[in-house]
Predict the structure.
Amino acid sequence: MIVVDGVSKTFPNGTVALNNTSAKIGEGEFIALLGPSGCGKSTLLRLLAGLEAPSGGQIIWPGGTAEPGDIGFVFQDATLMPWMSAAENVFLPLRLRGKSRSETRDSVTAALTQVGLADFADTKPAALSGGMKMRVSIARALVGSPKLLLMDEPFAALDEFTRFKLQADLHEVWHRTGTTIVFVTHSIYEAAYLATRVLVMSPRPGRVAANITSEVAEGPERRTAADYTAFVKQLSGVLRGVMPA
Ligand code: ADP
């Protein structure tokens, strides 16, 4: 369990991005951080990743602090090295941790297989579609078997068909690996489809204003199921409630 305990973040220019926000992240959960643009979702994700330090409060990891390799991060852009093949891109975080190519070959192949790109190991990013580049980015985040996978609107720039496919595949990867995921989105539909729990954030200065557990049944027909539609409606209502009039 990771505990976000009364965390605030004020940037040097005086912008208060987060104000005394708290949340708990349980092992194996798929949490969506849902809120309007600018409410501090990315800031909270960056604090969880240790890329920023909180101005107040604390983030408590089981066992104290996060170790290298505990966290995988996926950004909105795939941020691949254009001169490297898919496999070399996936190997990169392992290389940065001092691992050799030979000892990690199987892990790299397994990560690419997880995201359906086993046949594209030697392909360079320029020859991959936007969705495939994002798959490589996800494989690169998964390759060290992180305890926590943080995703910052990873599908926002993709067309809807690709987005639906990647959402379904990510959900399956989560099922298969049991990785804890925190996924930032401003899409109610995406949050309702993916998450086991949705943390709804208030407008800036952000805080977790509502915490809603999904009761949408698992299954391939989830996107059109009545309980999914009801969850979308519930989240819309909650989001309306936290927005200023
Ligand atoms: P979201 O992800 O919900 O769109 P962000 O966490 O990116 O929101 O940003 C929250 C607020 O903090 C915004 O008003 C943004 O402009 C501001 N902000 C983010 N990063 C910085 C920074 N490095 N310096 C100053 N202000 C920032």
